[in-house]
Write a structure and sequence with these properties.
CATH superfamily of the largest domain in chain A: Response regulator
Number of helices of chain A: 13
Number of domains of chain A: 3
Number of strands of chain A: 12
Oligomer: homodimer
CATH class of the largest domain in chain A: Alpha Beta
Helix content of chain A: 40-55%
Shape of chain A: elongated
Strand content of chain A: 5-15%
CATH architecture of the largest domain in chain A: 3-Layer(aba) Sandwich
Structural class of chain A: alpha/beta
CATH topology of the largest domain in chain A: Rossmann fold
Largest sheet of chain A: 6 strands, parallel
Chain lengths: ~325, ~325
DNA sequence: TTGCGCACTGCCAGCGCTGTCAAATATGGC
DNA sequence: GCCATATTTGACAGCGCTGGCAGTGCGCAA
């Protein structure tokens, strides 16, 4: 197919005047190669722009230098940052990252992933939510002894490698911010059950209310599906309540944006009559008007830390927790009287 | 590394009672295998959940069943849809898609891509804007005879495979929509020079103005960088003009959202005092308030068509053009008098 | 001088498949 | 029933590398 085809390790070795095994040693940074030889080989490699065949290394060696990233999240923003965070770190460490969207609800999840592993000889796997919660998959990976790391795991938090932020604490901070502004009827639009963070954020919200002696009112919690449309619908429901909330805490920015649109639609001033807060600090948070008060979730850094954990074998601590940050913007303000 | 390691083609053949070459034939859907034998082999393959090693097939055969997707676009929305569109089609056709972010401005672009090709034995490449415009890369790919397809190419539109929409016509339609609402002073926020579509959209805008006998005013064209912040800044500049425009056509939705935020900031009613339109119909278009009038760009379908073109060798027409659609929403309205 | 350890290098098998070609078996025509 | 031809199957090399191991040459202690 190629007109001019790639050089092979043997051609490099011929030109450098050494055995092809020696070239292999240089490429893999093994010791027991004299400085002189190494220099000569490297010079030829650079001149020919030689790159060893990934397929051949995988087949011959015990490592494939490939890691998979599994995701099943409809938010382009989230996916994008998970991808770039993980990819950067993997590239730096000399690994290739295989980006693999997958249906985490499919009954074939486990066999699909095993097929991927067998096909590509993956060295490890990075799981992002909600794939992180597929316990059948985790069991099978454990059984196989295939290393994996989870980003923001909800279940089995104490097992295995993971990189996460503290959703409960973050939700408490956000709730505290609203309470501090004088709000007492604070509603919550909670996200998908399949995402463990939804429950954590709800828990943080409840805990903070209780800490301030505010009774938890189940009528103020409405479920939605992590997207704009369902967030808008949930807000409609909340605003139709006889005793309307003065603030809405949405489980993510997409739902918060939906709630904001509902407020605009109903000519309710934000934050004058209603405060709205989101979670994630996605691009959306700054793009809507007024810009959203939200929690900055370090998605990029979480993914990067996950890659580090699984590749930098030296990992002393199997669990990394990164800092979130409350971003106060114009969508929240003092409670109306 | 694996506790229980993958089965190989030889084990499958032993169980099925045939030579491993016959199993290979079944896996590759070759003819000259009796129905009876095929059935028996397939049954064993399914039972063992056997998947042929990608590395071995690549090494032994002349195809790698891998296609690369190169991108260098900061918009998560665009990337996400390009990825999913291409990936779906590739998966259906039995290919693996390698998602590869890359710096299209780097002086090492060509050698980086060649390294990727050599390492992975890529069968073909899908280029998305602005990588599509890297002529040095195109030349090198041509020289190598490596098949590639471009999504929305700006240069060399008549060469090679490509999938695109008509940016000029779309921009004309959007401009006509604004003119039809009575607008005469219509500003344009143009996007990055490195994206060929920016120039096409500007050209469409100019052409439609001229078709309606409206003089083109260079003062009404401001450059920005395809993102929210630069769009907001550009709008500030436009609204500071003594003879302020009554409508702003932004080269993409991100910049339009920025312009919208600027309007909100300055307490300018949209669309009462100012109409704003975007381009792309990204998630953002529906998430902001008021929702943006924009052009729906079939990103997913373009990527899918590109994958089809490069893999479905049967492609009779090397160039595919897909339909866009004018989405009229609430951000545009009659010109104020 | 001999012997031994160590740093360096080369040889070869083999990873799990596909391509090629030859062998075995089935099919058809007369 | 026999040969020519088509269909089905198998044997084997080899893709481009790594892993294991067997050298080779040199310095240094005995």
């Amino acid at each position: 197919m190629h007109v001019s085809s790639r050089p092979t390790i043997k051609e490099v070795s011929k030109i450098a005047g050494v055995s092809f095994k020696t070239v292999s040693r240089v490429l893999n940074n093994e010791k027991h190669v004299s400085e002189e030889t190494r220099r000569r080989v490297e010079e030829v490699v650079a001149r020919l722009n030689f790159r060893p065949s990934h397929a051949a290394r995988t087949l011959a060696g015990r490592k494939s230098f490939q890691v998979g990233l599994l995701y099943d999240n409809p938010s382009p923003y989230y996916i994008y940052h998970v991808q770039t965070g993980a990819q950067q770190r993997c590239t730096e460490l000399g690994y290739r990252l295989l980006l693999q969207p997958i249906d985490s609800q499919s009954p074939d999840l486990v066999s699909n992933v095993l097929a991927l592993i067998d096909e590509t000889h993956l060295d490890g796997l990075i799981l992002s939510p909600p794939v992180t919660e597929a316990t059948a998959l985790l069991d099978e990976l454990d059984r196989r002894g295939l290393p994996y790391v989870r980003i923001a795991p909800g279940t089995r938090k104490d097992a295995g490698l993971s990189a996460s932020m503290d959703d409960v604490v973050a939700a408490r901070e956000l709730t505290a911010h609203l309470i501090g502004l004088g709000h007492r009827r604070i509603a919550m639009i909670r996200g998908l059950e399949s995402h463990a963070s939804s429950a954590d954020r709800l828990a943080g919200y409840r805990a903070e209310l209780e800490a301030h002696g505010i009774a938890f009112d189940p009528a103020l919690v409405v479920a939605a599906e992590n997207d704009f449309a369902s967030g808008a619908a949930a807000a409609r429901e909340l605003l139709a309540l006889k005793d309307r909330p003065t603030a809405i805490f949405a489980g993510n920015d997409d739902m918060a944006a939906g709630a904001l649109a509902t407020a605009h639609e109903s000519d309710i001033d934000v934050p004058g009559q209603l405060s709205i807060a989101g979670f994630d600090d996605s691009d959306l948070a700054r793009a809507v008007w007024p810009p959203l008060t939200t929690i900055r979730q370090p998605v990029h850094e979480l993914a990067s830390a996950a890659a580090e954990l699984i590749l930098g074998g030296a990992a002393p601590q199997p669990r990394v927790t990164l800092e979130h940050k409350l971003m106060v913007r114009a969508s929240t303000g003092p409670a109306p009287r």
